[in-house]
Amino acid sequence: ELGIPTIVGEMVNHQIGDGDVSFFYQMFFTLLTVSILGVCGTILLGYCNAKLAANISHDIRADVFGKVMQFSAQDYQKFGVGSLITRTNQDVVQIQMFTNSLMRTTVLTIFMFIMSIVMTMRASLTLSFVILATIPFVIIGVFVVSHISKNVSISQQNNLDKMNQLFREHLKGVKMI
């Protein structure tokens, strides 16, 4: 994502009127190589993230099921069957999607951050210091947004529990033919 614009910029900055066709062929093959490496890296990253998230969700689902099987009748009444269904299904899927998204974003962000700082330092040392100075503000913004979204998530979870309980009650009331 950063290599292609840089290579194209080098091609544009190089004078076309030179008649140096070998430079453009060299840049074309460099561009092609960077593109192929980028696609392969994206595929490998997606596969590894999906595999990791699936393994984590499998383990969580097995642990939750094992714990729920140890519950007494009072525990079932206390938590509610609708809530337990949500925990064993929807919550694990949410954790799986979050893990996949987090890992993909984290790995890409680290590589993009390092490469962008290197490329910015190459272009302008002063500008790279300005970018580095803004990082704490971005981190603070991420924490504020995550704190706000936590409250929304808790409310959403409670509503999902109620909805599962209602569906379950209605399904129990349906007569079988």
Structure report:
With 177 residues, the protein is mostly helical. The chain is elongated. Helix 1 runs antiparallel to helix 2, helix 2 packs antiparallel against helix 5 (90-123) and helix 5 (90-123) runs antiparallel to helix 6. Helices cover 89% and strands 0% of the residues. The chain contains six helices and no strands.
Q: Unreliable segments (pLDDT under 50, ≥5 consecutive)?
A: none
For the CA atoms, what is the radius of gyration?
Answer: 26 Å
Percent strand equals under 5%
Please trace the helix and strand order, writing H or E for each element. Answer: HHHHHH
Sum up the overall morphology in one term: elongated
Number of strands: 0
Instruction: Find the structural class using helix and strand composition.
Output: mainly alpha
Average pLDDT, rounded to a whole number, is 83
For the largest beta-sheet, the strand count, sense and barrel status come to:
none
Number of H/I helices: 6
* Head-to-tail CA distance between termini: 59 Å
Which percent bin holds the helix content?
over 70%
